[in-house]
Amino acid sequence: MKRKILDKSIELFLNYGFKSITLDEIANALGISKKTIYAHYKNKTALVEATTMGIFETISSGINGICELEMNPIKELFAIKDFVMEHLNNEKTSPQYQLQKYYPNLFMSLKRKQFEIMQECVQNNLRTGIKKNLYRKEIDINFISRIYFVGVTGIKDEETFPYSIFKPNVLIDYYLDYHLRAISTKEGLKILEKLSQKK
Questions:
Q1: What percent of the chain has pLDDT over 70?
Q2: Residue spans of alpha helices (H) in the chain
Q3: Domain boundaries along the sequence of the chain
Q4: Could you give the angle at the alpha carbon of 35 between the alpha carbons of 29 and 37, nearest 5°?
Q5: What is the distance of C-alpha 90 from the center of its chain?
Q6: SS in 3 state form for 108-128?
Q7: 22 Cβ neighbours under 8 A, 6+ residues apart
Q8: Alpha carbon distance 135, 132 (integer Å)
Q9: pLDDT (tens digit, 9 = 90+) per residue, 159-190?
Q10: HSE (CB half, 13 Å, CA atoms) of 65?
């Protein structure tokens, strides 16, 4: 039952937002009483924490799996983007922004974990890209990996990038194109152009 509660909560929170969905609505969707939820999670905050960490672990594991394939580094970034967007339901409710606003302590904890995972992943991607002559040799890997993290998380700020203007799946495509054009060699740009045409 605990797993069913977690899975349904992830689905509802991603579709409607952490703030909008109540424990009563989760219970109704599962056909159980709210007491059953309380038997596994002491309050809504505990359930939100479990769902966010569950999503984080799923996405981290998936990203690691993609990285282990050792594919072309530019294609790797597109594969990671597609995987993340699929598992966040194209972020209909900007879950990260809502976490920051309504659950700031949980947001900061998650951000630290994201940074640790992404630093290693992006730095390995950059090193491989340089070795394959797809990224420029003079780029500063430490700087680029950090600015990439700032960008990927920053575009989720709904006040700066309102949903009425920027749709999440389009926005991440814009950012990925921006990132890769800044660091790619001519060979890298050829691959980027081919991948962009397929979208």
A1: 96
A2: 2-16, 23-30, 34-40, 44-68, 73-87, 95-102, 104-131, 141-154, 168-183, 186-198
A3: 44-198
A4: 55
A5: 10
A6: HHHHHHHHHHHHHHHHHHHHH
A7: 44
A8: 8
A9: 899 888 988 888 999 999 999 999 999 999 99
A10: 9
Q: Residue 95 and residue 187: Cα distance in Å, rounded?
A: 36
How many whole angstroms separate alpha carbon 135 and alpha carbon 101? 37
pLDDT at 115 over 90: yes
State the Cα–Cα distance between residues 53 and 109, nearest whole angstrom: 10
Q: 191, 72 in Cβ contact below 8 A?
A: yes
Flag whether pLDDT at 97 surpasses 80.
Answer: no
CATH of 44-198, picked from 1.10.357.10, 1.20.950.20, 1.20.1250.20, 3.30.420.10, is 1.10.357.10
What distance in Å separates the CA atoms of residue 28 and residue 168, rounded to the nearest whole number? Answer: 29
Overall residue count recorded for the chain in this entry:
199
Instruction: Tell me what the pLDDT averaged over the chain comes to.
Output: 91
Amino acid identity, position 45: T
CB–CB of 137/188 below 8 Å? no
Categorize the per-residue pLDDT at 134 as very low, low, confident or very high, splitting at 50, 70 and 90: very high
